[in-house]
Amino acid sequence: AYSTGNVSGINGASVGGFVGYTGAESDIQNSYSSGIVSGPSATTGGFVGVNSVGAVYTSSFFDVDSSTQD
């Protein structure tokens, strides 16, 4: 799966290029995001905004240059 759109959020929102929040049983595979991501720094990420302990990511990534996140 992939996401190429730009994403933005406000305070209190979890903002990610692919998903905003992952639960402990999340299993994301073969995924990619490349849009610009902006939002409150503590809950914003290039691929995932807020990551729960136990979530699994396999062969998934984001474009650091286009997302403006690191």
Task: Please describe the structure with a list of short key phrases separated by commas or semicolons.
70 residues; mainly beta; three-stranded parallel beta sheet; two-stranded parallel ribbon; 1 helix; 11 strands; 6% helix; globular
Gross geometry: globular
What is the mean predicted local confidence, pLDDT?
Answer: 92
Q: What is the oligomer described by this structure?
A: single chain
Summed up, the helix count is 1
Kindly state the percentage of residues in helix. under 10%
Main sheet characteristics = 3 strands, parallel
Structural class based on helices, strands and sheet pairing: mainly beta
N-to-C terminal Cα separation, in Å?
A: 21 Å
Elements, N to C (H/E)? EEEEEEEEEEEH
Number of E-type strands: 11
Radius of gyration: 11 Å
Q: In percent, how much strand structure appears in the residues?
A: 35-45%
Query: Which strand order spans the largest sheet, edge to edge or round the barrel?
Result: 1-6-11
- Unreliable stretches covering 5 or more consecutive residues: none
Q: What would your notes on this structure say?
A:
- With 70 residues, the protein is mainly beta.
- It contains one helix and eleven strands, in the order E-E-E-E-E-E-E-E-E-E-E-H.
- Helices cover 6% and strands 40% of the residues.
- A three-stranded parallel sheet has the order 1-6-11, with no helix packed on it. Strands 2-7 form a two-stranded parallel sheet. A two-stranded parallel sheet has the order 3-8.
- The two termini are 21 Å apart.
